[in-house]
């Protein structure tokens, strides 16, 4: 796993340079889910593909930006699923964006097969959070000579203060709206940038809170993709002492996507907010 994490540091540096220097415009393509692709989405995907394609531990890669699975080494140990540039709709306004990685055992593309996860935050500083299953996540920051050093071990408190509610309110169910309102009524503060990487990173580093992306009438199965987005963050939240569930109260790490681009409603939080969610949803 260390070899893979070392490669992720290289990828982080390369994508960071691309974000700072390359064209932010649209490419002529759409990705597998029909989203317009930015030139930067394509460039970030190419950096990751190029870097991972000579790692013998890697059996195959699956990208949010690719329709199909890409084989690398048939004897490799892991499948790496990734979102090369999450939050590409906010990169033009110079908000923080990120890359997300899920490292799955063999070709076991389920929550139970997920062995490790990581994300990169491209912000004023370049940061990386890595977690192997069952161990507290490590938060690293890149220094002056491009070397990453550990800043902290990530651990959530029992209860936080932040509320990051995703999606469009007019499409939320009355249950979800009442739940989100109840957190604000309790004193939670709104923190939502529209990029799940910085939004979840903030909750993790500030010790707790809730990030939700529910199923709603416009998107009954939510927006966030299981393999590249929801499951990697579920592993990180659980490793940090928090929880990650869907709207039926199932652990995200117990889910099994039917298709590689499947999405799921999701709730990530410290224990208190997740307990409140279960209560509000009658679970
Ligand atoms: P993307 O992968 O196309 O960038 O979309 C995922 C992003 C997440 O980072 C973020 O949490 C979510 O979309 C925001 O969606 P919304 O604007 O509907 O709240
Ligand atoms: Mg994404």
Describe the structure.
The protein is an alpha+beta fold. The chain folds into two domains: 152 residues, Fructose-1,6-Bisphosphatase, subunit A, domain 1 (Fructose-1,6-Bisphosphatase, Chain A, domain 1, 2-Layer Sandwich); 120 residues, D-Maltodextrin-Binding Protein, domain 2 (3-Layer(aba) Sandwich). The protein contains six helices and 15 strands. Strands 4-3-5-6-7-8-9-10 form an eight-stranded mixed sheet, sandwiched between helices. It has a five-stranded mixed sheet with strand order 12-11-13-15-14, sandwiched between helices. The longest helix has 20 residues. The radius of gyration is 18 Å and the shape is globular. The N and C termini lie far apart (37 Å). The mean pLDDT is 95. The structure holds 2,5-anhydro-1,6-di-O-phosphono-D-mannitol (AHM) and magnesium ion.
How do the helices and strands line up, and which of them pair or pack?
Blueprint: H1 2-21, E1 26-30, E2 36-38, H2 39-52, E3 58-63, E4 70-71, E5 78-86, E6 97-105, E7 114-122, E8 126-132, E9 138-142, E10 148-153, E11 162-165, H3 174-185, E12 189-190, H4 196-205, E13 209-213, H5 226-239, E14 243-245, E15 266-269, H6 271-281
Parallel strand pairs: 3-5, 11-12, 11-13
Antiparallel strand pairs: 1-2, 3-4, 5-6, 6-7, 7-8, 8-9, 9-10, 13-15, 14-15
Helix pairs in contact: 1-2, 3-6
Bound molecules: 2,5-anhydro-1,6-di-O-phosphono-D-mannitol and magnesium ion.
